[in-house]
Structures are given as C-alpha cells and as structure tokens.
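step 4 of 6: structure.
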Amino acid sequence: MKIVQCWDDGVEDDIRLCELLRSFGAQATFNLNTGLHGTDRGSAWLFRGEKEVRKLAKSELVSVYEGFEIANHTLTHLSADKIDPAEWKREVLEGRARLEDLFGRRIAGFAYPFGHCPPHAVETVREAGHLYARTCANATPWFPPTDPMLLAADCYFLSPHFWERYALAKSSGAPAFYFWGHSYELCSEDDWKSFEEKLRRLDSDPDAEWGSLSGMFN
Ligand SMILES: [Zn+2]
C-alpha cells in the first residue's frame, strides 16, 4: 500500500516539515496560493488566537519545496461559495498559471480552499484540466474515486482515528492511504515529536511505501 499525503497553504512551518519528510524519504504534495506570497515572509493570521502563522516569501518557494509535488490551491484562497463564478474561474486558472510559471512544470492537482466545492466550482476545476481535486471529506478507501474532482482522503493528520483509518485501509486492500494537514498546527516540540513518531511508524511498516498523490492518477 502507498502512503500519500498533502499539506496546505505554504507556511513557514513547511520548512521544518519538508526537512522531516526528506529524512524519511517521504513524498508529499503542497497546495499553494501564489497570490498570497509576497517579497518577504508575511504574517497571515493567528492560529488558535496565539500562534502567528507566516506565509513563505515567494522567492523561497522553489527551494523550500524542492523534490516535492506542488498543487493548485487557487490564487488567493477565497471560498468558492463566497465569490461569483467568474471570479472563481480566475482564482483557479490564474492560480495554476502562476504556479506553472514559478515552478516551471505542469501543475496537475487541486485542493478546494476550506473544502468548499459547489457544483459550478467543481466543473471549473475539471474544465481547467486538473487530474484531481481534494475536498475535506473522509472516505476509506478513497481510491479509485467516483469523481476525481471530488476527492476524499482517509483522514486529517491529527485525526484521533488516524491509526484506525490506517488499519482499515490496509485490511480493505486499498491501494493507498491518504492523509492531509497544515504544518502550522504543529505548535510545540511535543507536537513535532509525536508527528515524527507517526512518520516513523508508517515508514517502518513493511507493507507500505511512500507514494505521490498525482502518481495515483497517471
Ligand atoms: Zn487552505
């Protein structure tokens, strides 16, 4: 079974996360909003009212994510159900075009900001030629999806049911286990330590290997 994962929003904590993932040889996809990265790292919001979440500077994106997959998370992270279809279309197309310019490669994947995916938004993402688009739904097994533009994952990385879902994916013969997250939710050293333990446990499973999300659709 493959283990695939993706991470959203292009924040400063991704630097540490990427180093950790590299130490395990793990693959991952990072969902980015090119319109929200400035010349310098910038404060974006306070997580739980106390931790300052900072977006990476645009100039460092290519080096920070070297070796990882990049996917489109729209231009500026607006929710599809809060903007009109024309604006959504621009968010989707412009978001991807700028990522392709910046990284010099085809961007195949998509993740809906806030997981919101009304029907017109789904069709826009499909027509734009994405291979898959992730929602925030949970399903085990999640692959093959009924509709790749409404892709679910096994679970969120901090789900209390993480290992339960993992065991279920294995016992059901699923081709892959898929989790997703935000690195800014790792706040303390204990949080990082326990996530590292999670990676170690996944890495040491002889029945599993790290895989790429877009690789499931090629
Ligand atoms: Zn997001």
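step 5 of 6: annotate
 - The CA atoms of residues 15 and 118 lie 33 Å apart.
 - The longest strand covers residues 2-8.
step 6 of 6: archive
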